[in-house]
Specification:
Elements: E1 3-9, E2 16-27, E3 30-38, E4 44-53, E5 58-65, E6 68-73, E7 78-83, E8 90-95, E9 99-101, H1 105-115, E10 124-132, E11 137-155, E12 158-169, E13 175-181, E14 184-188, E15 191-196
Parallel strand pairs: 9-10
Antiparallel strand pairs: 1-2, 1-15, 2-3, 3-4, 4-5, 5-6, 6-7, 7-8, 10-11, 11-12, 12-13, 13-14, 14-15
């Protein structure tokens, strides 16, 4: 069960945004990721709880940020309920999309699991619903994912397989690289892996 800490920062000016303390693990029905977020000053700022089925589809998502809450799942595309800080207003949404995304590294793992690309696979288009900070506002976006390379690196704990993805935002054409090993993001824009207590899980 990988457990560790990511630092999240603005990918453009590198302003620190949060630290995400996480643990995740594959299970009999898929994969689950749970994390708590803190501000740079150490205050609690939110949480992520994401569960995927064996095909990589989100069967449960619960996000908290700035007293806002989102609960969602893959249902007729993806469906979610967003609740305001007072708890009096709840807005339901539904979009014909494949999955969710957001600032948490969990969503990069989830998208990679959903697509299951190989280095020989052509770039694949995916439609996602992003929940943007700080109020978890939903936004539908289209991305293209391609697995550029798969390399194995020797480590003290044995060989470590690292996948490099090229992710393209289809509305702007902006491209960036994402490096993933198992169920841990090693590097991505705005994300740095600061600490890892145990090796990444190996997906079968």
């Amino acid at each position: 069960m990988p457990r560790g800490r990511y630092s999240l920062h603005d990918p453009h000016d590198h302003t620190p945004l949060a630290e995400e303390h996480f643990h995740c693990a594959p299970g009999p029905s898929g994969w689950r990721y749970v994390s708590q977020l803190t501000t740079p000053s150490g205050d609690h700022s939110g949480s992520v709880d994401l569960a995927l089925d064996e095909l990589g589809r989100p069967i449960r998502l619960e996000l908290h940020a700035a007293s806002w809450q989102v609960r969602g799942a893959a249902l007729d595309g993806v469906t979610w309920v967003r609740t305001d800080p007072t708890g009096t207003e709840a807005t339901e949404g539904n979009v014909q999309a494949h999955a969710f995304t957001g600032t948490s590294p969990a969503f990069l793992i989830a998208t990679a699991r959903l697509l299951r690309l190989t280095p020989s696979t052509a770039a694949t288009r995916v439609r996602l619903v992003a929940f943007t900070d700080p109020v978890l506002a939903p936004r539908t976006l289209d991305q293209s994912w391609a697995l550029i390379s798969r390399e194995t690196h020797a480590t003290d704990n044995g060989p470590l397989a690292v996948d490099e993805y090229q992710v393209t935002a289809l509305d702007t054409g902006e491209q960036h690289a994402v490096h993933i090993s198992g169920d841990v993001v090693l590097a991505a824009p705005g994300i740095e892996l600061e600490h890892l207590e145990s090796p990444p899980s190996v997906f079968i």
